[in-house]
Amino acid sequence: MRAWGMTDVGLKRRENQDTYAFETTPDTVVAIVCDGMGGVTGGQVASALAVKTFMEQLHAQAHEDMSIEQVRSMLTRCISKANTAVHERAQADIEYYGMGTTLVAAVISPDLAVVCNVGDSRAYHINAKGIRRVTRDHSVVEEMVESGEITPEEARVHPNRNLITRALGPGRHITCDSFTVPMEEGDMLLLCSDGLIITAEDEEIYAIISAETDGGRSLERLLELSKSRGAPDNVTAILVRNEDEEVSVDG
């Protein structure tokens, strides 16, 4: 398994409120991307705290030979703990009141990935057949698309595209969605914040990633594309490729 990550403040924001982390072993990758919200500093605090708590909880709970349902339950518990940490910090400090963060996380093995998400950070499954979005956005425009009120193309530029309906932090309890993705040799999983999505269409993401053998270069090209279109938000992504050699490159 190989994994690469990158994050960038973009061209309009003063602070990068995205946080990401990944860890690799020869047969497993754990990856998480969070996109914070809430004031000048609250978003950065929320996303960093969520990632830190999630990874700590995963280290404490993971063990060998876990079933799919055990992995799914573990991820749900880790996300719940992360939500509690962000919520309690926000309640304890008026400076951070109301802060929150999106989250997309995955445990990826050579034959299967388990993915969970809250908010509008996404996971994509990519292989020779094309690109497929795994997650469903918890957002106002996603609901409008599903109801037929607007098209996916209109959703990308809708004035309410940044309004999410679910996030870690604002409430005491959180519900995440979970998905299983069959993986084959050469398949890839992309986790990203919405800063990439609003500047690059799915097929453009696929064209760039499928054209590069170096995953790190793929992420560099995606960032270049985002910046060529104004990069109005922070841009963060992790790319995981299912292959034998274990190499991690942190961008």
How would you describe the overall organization of this protein?
The protein has 251 residues and is α+β, with helices and mostly antiparallel strands. It has one domain: Phosphatase 2c, domain 1 (4-Layer Sandwich). It has 7 helices and 12 strands. The strands form 2 sheets. It has a 6-stranded mixed beta sheet. Strands 2, 3, 4, 5, 6 and 9 form a 6-stranded antiparallel beta sheet that branches. The longest helix has 25 residues. It is globular and about 50 Å long. 48% of the residues are buried. The C terminus is likely disordered.
At a glance:
This protein is of the alpha+beta class and 251 residues long. The protein has helices spanning 39-61, 68-92, 140-146, 152-157, 194-197, 202-211, 215-228; strands spanning 2-8, 18-25, 28-37, 100-101, 103-108, 112-118, 122-127, 130-133, 177-182, 188-192, 235-241, 247-250.
